[in-house]
Amino acid sequence: MTNDINLRAATDDDTVLVTGATGHVGGYSVAALLDHGYRVRVTLREPGQRDEVLARVRQAGADPDGRVDFHTVLLSADEGWAEAVDGARYVLHHASPFPFSPPEHEDELIRPAVDGTLRVLRAAREAGVRRTVLTSSYAAIGYSLKANDQYSEADWTNPDEGLPAYHKSKTLAERAAWDFAREHDGFELSVVNPTGIFGPLLGPRLSASTGLIKGFMEGSSPVVPRMHFGVVDVRDVVDLHLRAMRHPAAAGERFIGVGGAAVSFLDLSRMIARHLPALADRLPQRELSVDEVREGAKTEPALREAARLDGRIPVISNAKAREKLGWRPRPVAQTIADTADSLVKLGLIDPEGARRGSLPVGRPPVVAAGGRRRRVDGHPSPTGVSEGPCHRPCRAC
CA–CA separation, 239 vs 371, rounded Å? Predict the structure, then answer.
């Protein structure tokens, strides 16, 4: 394949700085970089996160001994970033601020997202990093409705359309990153825009999307709204980041990460049922009609995004990543099956604990690198917009 690339071309001196390594994408990124021969430098918010990162890397099958070092820095402060980036050849910037609950004012999320991104880019530029890869989101591409429902890297979400603060923060942070790259000749930036990220867990900490699957498997959502969204495997997201990091054609480009055609919540339920038929009676069985979603959204905020989408099915293209970078994502059904298997293997699904609850499922999953998961009535919320990994164990986890 002429557009494939040797990702194992690292030398002993090739160091990659990774932010957000405690997240779903970040943990797999560190493991993949080690497998490809790189040294890895990880930034942490707190020194106590070191052991967690190493455990996740080992769970992914990589050996971190002697090839991973750590720096404690904050996206909200300049201190320590020059030292963290010094000597790195590449930067993978996954981390993004994420609230436990929606902020009182959107600027509480937007300003840290934009400022944190620019802080990392400035440090990378000053350190002479060869290329920086930013984890953005499909939220920055496809949340403004189009008449033909077709979306590619040429599209941008309009941040002035009254969208949730998270969507707006990802859009404005990516815009700011591209402005920075244009203002500094020679600065190489690539951006990855994943859709909903699923795939096997590396530990008990849930991401928004894996929490959704867990909720389905526990019987928390007997009914789901009619709604379609993109799905991509976390392992393929990491592969796309590494290709964006190394491929000459990736400089100055953004790439959508989606595994295939858009799917619905009910599609996910049926994939799990086919793979694990013993759990079929716990899984969502019915899909609300568009009219039912509209009516429910009048009193249930979690359904408002589904009502806004009005049953439309987005056509999300991954042609650019496939053609320019030789990226080949695995089938969505395999991703969902592997996600479900990992929940069972880690003991996160209690065979005796099935329940039928009333947790709302009304928003499509979007990537929330480095984030935390909001809770609803003491349980993990299965909605996927304003959530991220949960940092505290609980009865439901």
Answer: 21
